[in-house]
Fold these 4 entries.
Entry 1:
Amino acid sequence: MAELGRGSLSKMKAHLDAPVQYAFRLGDEEVPVNPLVGKSLRLEYLGAIHCTHCGRKTKTSFSQGYCYPCMQKLAQCDVCIMSPEKCRYDAGTCREPSWGEQFCMTDHIVYLANSSGVKVGITRASQVPTRWIDQGATQALPILRVATRQQSGFVEDLLRTRVADKTNWRALLKGDAAPVDLPAIREQLFDSCGAGIAELQQRFGLQAIQPLNDARCWTSATRSRPTRRRSPASIWTSSRWPKVLCSVSRAST
């Protein structure tokens, strides 16, 4: 097989186009994925795992690709990454206040997305629509602009009492979810959670949590699906997916 590249494997790159263009990231090298669809491909683990932050060689990766020391000290590995409402910046105990100012103390979008069904989520305003592409959404709708990550976490925590906050990857692989009326679902959420949203606005200020009543619904192109489905965990037999050193090869034609 002809080798297309080798290096430390990072999150796949996605570029908004029609259709979306994907690429493997192997160190500083990128291997376009779209031309490989329908062809035989082999990913080979070369026996090394490197921290996604410091590059240190490690036996096991933690928190999606970090060595243990980095996992223990970096703000991007703290509990608030999975639970934004637990942010400790205002309490003065953030692991890296400068990192928090750049990534957490900035505008976030609370959105509805349709991938395996309707879900609520949050992302930095700068990550729209990348976040939706990463999740495999076919529809998405920004519903609130919020001043900080922590505040968006409080809003998400409120809304997920009414709608899911996770994607069912098994359902996602079976095919595109049926189209839904996201603006109508937004209005239903605003009606059912209006009192809770008002309480958060009173706590943080009206300007901190702003409804996006005029936002447009985003849609993506329809994608083809694999006929054979495998769990992501069955592709790699350990937690070594992030930053593993590997090579990508394609059968010669």
Entry 2:
Amino acid sequence: MAEKKINGQKPGTRKKTKITLSEFYERELPPLAEVVTFCNNLQFSLYADTTIVKSPEVVFRGVALSRNRLVSEDYLLNFRRSEGDLGVVIGTYNYSLPAATGAAANRDLEESDEDLLPLPPPKNERAPIGAVIRSRRSRRRYSGKPVSLQDLSTLLFHSAGITGRLEAENAPQSAVFGDQPYLDLHAAASGGGLYPVDLFIMALNVEKLPRQAYRYMPKSHALKPVPLTGPLPELTRLAQFLEIQAEKAGFLIGYVYNFFENSRKYGEAGLGFAFIEAGGIAAHVHLLATALGLGSCDVGGFSKRRFERLFNADGVTRHMIHLTVVGKLGDGV
């Protein structure tokens, strides 16, 4: 028996329509969200396994009946599950050995000095910390005026720059590594002083800085251009900025986690420490932006894959985990 076509199409098939991302958010997302919410508007969802779009609410409502799980739930269920697990204890002890200390003391050898763009010396910001904390707000509207390279330098230094040294007491003595090895101390706290989170800058409107992606090199206090592998992506394809005026911002800050920098010591706890570190750096970013008269706002809905391509992170050992927008203040919040 021949299949009956409806409007020239076979049953079960739908015509594909190409629309822009902004059209999808404005026209398609509201009714789609209403339908998905209606289908799962139960104390325990019977449809949790069959709904194509599985929002976190769907997963929670179907938790007693469904095989669905949030990745974060699996992580927490397996996080430090036994006091008898000596893996982290052994890993931590190994990092006290001379070889590990010597490696940590010479991490700056990883920073190539080729193609570096030196940043101007950071300003010694003296704004009262209490007043800055009380006045900090997430700012989504920007003026479109360029951010000075001096302000960018000051913000990066006080967020993730090297602010001190610690003598490496048990590092091996070597003419290659030097006879006075030391560990660099950064502005933001880091589990074990391993600093696995790197900052990348997408310059949008910064004085004397071409529109491009850069990696911040704290040892040199400089920017290293990230090699371009194609045309720069449109901002609307990098994140769901919504009411954030990213097109008028000065720059974006991407936080990239180097998985092996701390997981070798802390195991699965390393991921938790990386998120804590990224939050600490972001807090410094927002406070410095406030002190400098800039606006800043965190963005959760970013395209991890597109940013990783932009920053030349492989998405296997190096992962984009956070995003902040910074710009000159405009009218409104």
Entry 3:
Amino acid sequence: MVDVFVSAFRDIVDYRIHETTWWISQVFAFMSLIVMFWSFQIKDKLKMMLLLGLGTTFLAISAAFLGNWTLTVLFALASIRNYVFCYFEWRALVDRPVARWLWYFFAGVFIVATVASTVLLVHVIRVDTAGTWVEWLICMTLIGLIVGNVISGTDLMRISFVANRSFNIINHWYFANVIAVIIACLTISSNIIFYIRMFFAWKKERKAMKTRVVVATDKAPGAIGPYSQATVYNGVIYVSGQLPIDPATGELIAGDIGQQTHMVMSNIAAIVEAAGSNMENLLKCTILLTDMGDFAQVNEAYAKFFPGTPPARICYQVCALPKGACVEIDAVCAM
């Protein structure tokens, strides 16, 4: 097997390396290598698709200079597809989403175009190719990429692209596109590297979840006793009871019970954000009041922090609170 590859490489050197079009194709293939390797190290789907579109455009140009018109057409369609769905993703990101049926419509159009172009080039025009079965496997992986554009996440796109690159290695070798073969191997390895990175990040996150982490921030009052502002364990934040203390002065604020409640909730929000979460992830609050007659005002100020679905809650009346405060609230929050 090694002798076969060595012989093929020598044929490339002997017959293709002196052609100008071969060199131009390798330049575009190398540009594609840089862009695509970078793209698969990015989690953000919009950025990943945009870079994939650019890299696929370079591959289409590279294939055209080698006279591989099947790959040229398929790569060109893939580029246009990526740019279209990039536009859709961007519209959703800026709160101007396009109708969902448009996603499915364009996905259907690109699937039909991919299948039709494969039939036309392979069975009607009968362009030069490494094999009909290779082109159809490439076609199937492109359909997987199209579906991956529509559904959430990037896993299907990554898996389909790895399969696509694997089958394209056969085609690139047949057309003596050495750098494209290297690109295919490196982009496959880029995805493998990405998942290895994600695995170790997951292991680190799992280890961190099993370790108690103390939260401290100067945007909320410091502890006035032997306790922490909050602790995090197993993905849950436990916020200590907060008083209506201004973190800038360390003193109870003046004002009615509504203003005091607002100060308490602002302190909780600052601690939760310092822990890496937000108020939308609050699971439960406990309210302590020295006078249950203040409940209506406390409730009004409290509700302003939960425009959506509020967390579970319990409220008690107590005889006294630290520093003579009228209200104290603690919280439990998810990461």
Entry 4:
Amino acid sequence: MKRYLTDEEIKRAKADKKIREGIIAELEAKLEIGKPRPVTVDGPDPETGYKMGAYRMTRRVATEDAIRQFCDAIGEFNPLYRNRDYLKNTRYGGLIAPPQFLGAVAPYSGIAKAAEDLDFHVARVDAGVSVEWFKIIREVDRFTVFEYPTSVKDITRENTVLQFLVNGNRVFKNQRDEVVAIVDIAGIAVVLREPSPGKVQVGKPPQFRRFSKREVEDWFKRAEKEKIRGGNPLFWEDVKVGDELPPTHHLFTQAEAIAYSAAMGKSVSWRTHMAHTRDTWKNMIDPESGLPDFTHWHLTDAAAQRLGMPRANALGMQMRAWLGRMISNWMGDDGFIQKMGDQLRGVLYRDSLALCKGRVVKKYIQDREHLVELTVTVEDHDGNFMIPNGTATVVLPSRKMGIGAGIP
């Protein structure tokens, strides 16, 4: 059975490089570094036996219902992703999905999943991703996904926990064998001590506050005032370095976590969980009922505390989807998000407000594409940054080239 390492064992591992090298070697063997493997809907993979677990492929097809559920989960009201009548008058001609919808096809913060096969407990932390999109995601697109683990690195320091950085990427292809997107992923595997009340092993202790009704009403009014550019083109020539994107306003509560979890296809019954975790469910016992608690650390405080965190918290992919919504609002129907990248540097805890911001830092022409580079951020109600230095590259229409020129 899986166990927690003792303080003495962790102290010894931090002091002894050979012990850490042994953990790296075990992780590399389980990940099969450099070997591509298909990300399957139902693990384990029939050829390799590798079990994707929570980060398996959760849906193969971009159906209308799946796109709508994803949009509902992130508060996306853009008719470009919802309204067939509206789409008849666009260059797309049919329903498309937001770029970050791929996170609901095969969630891409799970490259460190193999760490769960170690005989001691670890927490898997999303350290950041970089995504490049090559194609629009259209309704009924059918996906295949391959994962390529590339490296495991010891990032333990004297003043840190025992932790390892796992890198890799995922390649998403559609039914035409076209590469839709390539995602470079960084995940951290944190080795855990036995949890104890009030002791935080991952993240920083949150500062809780109670919001007044007036604060909530004001935040919602700000959200209601957010503008969707839609069919009014934003031309490259009209964008200036230093322009600020209209911010978007978000709330992270348990309801938001449940909605996004369901959109990802991660909300399943206890029987399904038991089938995947038959040997580890005894580590997930609810102390009051004695029943297994299969909620994850983004949903409930109890699950978070089992993994050394003080409170449930937002998925990195959820915050990236919010940023994608902000960019789509600004660029309009005729823009294309080509790249997004980030490093997560803070935790958005349950019952927080979140604000997405963006600014134009560069514009240029390359290979006939009219490009704009952005910095994007996510911060909470106290000004703490979850994503302090995110980036994005957007292709915009040009007055000279015309709408649709150079855009996938």
